[in-house]
Design brief:
This protein has about 700 residues and is mainly alpha-helical. The longest helix has 17 residues. The radius of gyration is 33 Å and the shape is elongated.
């Protein structure tokens, strides 16, 4: 009866039956004890296992090889590794099953090196491995990325005729793929006389893991044609492929299969769906699916946090991060890497500092990705000095770490520091990539280092054999445009080997606005209207160029075109975080509880600014509006309201950080320079185009944005 209970999975009932046998004075035999030991292992019930072990010793059957093997296996399942090894060492006789149990036990407890040592000990003792040994040992080679040892075992398998065992073949497919040799894995897969769902899953996962997404998807489709039903592991392996390819329709079909097959409750499948929808920019569905996962783990939370962060939902990402901790899920380094960009996007420095503290307490500082995330966060929150401190303390740095720090210097206008760091990077032997030169060229552009920028554009081709990409040409056009070399910038666009995109033409249009090059600006705008006819920002920029030149007829014509194309200007909004709470302002906003204080503060600042020489730039405001009304419109722009709120609600001397959803207008930019000097504050503003660092009446962008 006990053996039947265990076979059917009724482990508690089996143990209760055993206790009844004891009370009745009935002696269990060896096979019953083996069944009871298996039940304890399945339940991970160490106390019951220890008690039964004592009963076995009392009956003098511990020396039985099958009982001893079962006990060792039970202890492994109860994570009592020391007891397992002691039991194995006490066994007077061991067979291949005993050795297999030890290898499997260490492997399943995340100790592949220990398992490998047992396998070598087994061979030294002259015990001949069987196919089960191979099934246990091959994954060790995969987990240890020990392909040479894997090849030796492959040779042993061929010599001993185990190659026909489907489980052994599946192991080799998985092993070669995990070791990065997906071509051999594929050849083995194709040579298999018989394949099951594990075979297909192994090769699909292998291609997915090695960034061969199209091949993985093709194999998944072929699998279905062959009428092999995917299991939950197959689905968890193919969903990242749909995410990487942004193959939403294919992902939806797989989702339908998941629902029909009842896999929705599987945490790995559910997490894969959340990740897939998020990477396909369907955050709403990702959120709904996340809420349906019955038992969410750290990977599930990381998926939704990263999904929100990567899809411009930083508020939601931080909210999920807080909820994750409330739910008692311990964040890991991946969580840190996922949530830090949201702190950067919101200029949420205080939350970023708290996360940094958690990183230190949790020992994550040595993680290169976490360190790089902190460098990026501090840079974008305006603490470039702290960013450099974090960078200098990093024990390991990769090319992304260097790129992040170089770009950080660049967006703050510290061009010389960026170039010095680039030289240091070269001296360490770290090879620059395309992103490195984006940072270097950005730094040159923001600091007005024209000649250095030209040189580094050539260096990337001559010294590093890196063909300039669209972003590099955009940086070069921006560099030349800022310095007033607009004809040269235009020549670069006309002769570049790539078809210029909106970023390139947008850089030229921005330069034309700064330097009042109307006709060239019109040419740039025409290209932009063709590429993105509904992007209202370019119409507004050209309209401002016309308005600055007093060409009101052209302004009116442009507004007619905008009306015909049904392009509407997005309302300007700015937000500021004070005491961990976000405050959002719209243009002319009077809904805030402190509106009276805010407008009173602006009145005070306005008077001081005029005394200091500030003259409102009313040119871009519509013609026909009285000058006083024009000034009133400018007076209530959202960024000015947010800054006034910051002056009122933060301590004197503390920096003020705000985020604006659109490009800052000329008047606001000029006004904030005056405000920064009057109130003695550093003011950070990130608008839709640039990062602005205002201090002592100057801006890091050099009045070019």
């Amino acid at each position: 009866m006990i053996r039947d209970y265990v076979k059917k999975g009724f482990y508690h009932e089996a143990l209760r039956m055993y206790y009844q046998m004891q009370r009745a004075g009935i002696e269990p035999d060896r096979l019953v004890f083996i069944s009871l030991i298996n039940a304890c292992g399945r339940l991970s019930d160490l106390q019951a296992g220890l008690q039964i072990h004592q009963d076995i010793i009392a009956r003098g059957i511990e020396s039985d090889v099958f009982v001893g093997t079962a006990l060792a296996s039970m202890y492994f399942k109860c994570e009592s590794l020391e007891n397992a090894r002691q039991m194995f060492d006490r066994m007077p006789e061991r067979n291949v099953v005993s050795w297999n149990a030890m290898i499997a036990g260490y492997s399943q407890n995340g100790l592949p090196h220990k398992a490998w040592e047992v396998f070598k000990e087994m061979l030294f003792q002259g015990v001949k491995p069987n196919s089960v040994t191979m099934v246990n040992v091959i994954p060790l080679c995969a987990n240890l990325l020990a392909m040479e040892q894997g090849k030796q075992i492959h040779g042993y398998v061929i010599r001993n005729g185990f190659e026909s065992d489907i489980s052994v073949c599946n192991g080799f497919v998985d092993m070669y793929a995990k070791c990065g040799n997906v071509n051999i894995a594929y050849k083995l897969f194709r040579r298999m006389p018989k394949r099951d769902v594990v075979s297909w899953t192994a090769i699909i996962a292998g291609y997915s893991r090695n960034d061969h997404s199209y091949e993985a998807l093709a194999l998944f489709n072929e699998m279905q044609v062959q009428n092999i039903q995917p299991n939950s592991i197959t689905i968890a392996s193919i969903l990242p492929v749909c995410a990487d390819l942004v193959a939403l329709e294919q992902g939806k079909q797989i989702h339908g299969y998941v629902i029909r097959s009842g896999f929705e409750s599987d945490v790995f499948v559910g997490t894969g769906l959340v990740d897939m929808y998020a990477k396909c920019r369907n955050v709403k569905t990702a959120h709904k699916l996340f809420e349906r996962i019955p038992q969410r783990n750290a990977v599930s939370w990381n998926a939704i946090i990263a999904g929100c962060s990567q899809n411009d939902h930083p508020h939601e990402a931080l909210a999920f991060f807080s909820e994750m901790q409330i739910q008692g899920i311990i964040p890991d380094p991946v969580t840190m890497v996922s949530v830090l960009p949201s702190c950067a996007d919101l200029l949420a420095l205080e939350q970023g500092k708290q996360i940094h503290g958690y990183v230190i307490r949790s020992g994550f500082e040595s993680d290169v990705f976490v360190g790089t995330g902190l460098v990026d966060m501090y840079s974008k929150c305006g603490h470039i000095g702290v960013a450099r401190q974090v960078f200098d303390k990093m024990l390991n740095r990769n090319v992304v770490s260097w790129n992040s720090m170089i770009l950080g210097y660049g967006i703050h206008g510290h061009g010389e520091d960026a170039l010095a760091l680039f030289s240091q990077m070269q001296q360490t032997g770290t090879k620059p990539n395309h992103s490195t030169f984006i940072g270097v060229l950005t730094a040159c552009s923001h600091a007005g280092l024209v000649e250095e920028g030209r040189q580094h554009f050539e260096y990337m081709k001559s010294d590093y054999d890196l063909a300039p990409e669209m972003g590099h040409y955009a940086c070069l056009v921006d560099l030349l445009g800022r310095a007033g070399h607009l004809d040269e910038a235009h020549d670069i666009i006309k002769t570049m080997p790539l078809e210029p995109n909106v970023v390139v033409w947008g850089a030229l249009l921005g330069a034309c606005r700064i330097h009042s090059k109307i006709e060239l600006g019109v040419q740039a705008a025409k290209h932009l209207f063709e590429l993105q006819p509904n992007n209202v920002g370019y119409y507004v920029l050209l309209s401002n160029i016309y308005a600055e030149a007093g060409r009101w007829e052209d302004v009116a014509k442009l507004r007619t075109v905008m009306k015909e194309r049904e392009t509407k200007k997005q309302p300007g909004s700015s937000f500021i975080e004070v005491n961990k709470k976000l405050h959002t302002f719209l243009v002319g906003d009077r809904t805030h509880s402190q509106s009276e204080k805010i407008y009173a503060m602006l009145e005070t600042l306005y008077g001081q600014m005029k005394e200091a020489g500030y003259v409102p730039n009313t040119n871009p405001v519509l013609q026909g509006v009285e000058e006083e009304m024009k000034e009133t419109v400018l007076f209530s722009h959202s960024e000015k309201l947010a800054i006034a709120f910051g002056v009122i609600n933060t301590s004197p001397g503390n920096p003020i950080r705000i985020v604006k959803n659109l490009r800052m207008c000329t008047d606001c930019h000029n006004a904030i320079k005056f405000i920064s000097k009057i109130v003695g504050r550093v003011i950070f503003v990130r608008d839709a185009n640039h990062f602005h660092h205002f201090n002592h009446g100057l801006c890091s962008c050099g009045d070019y944005w």
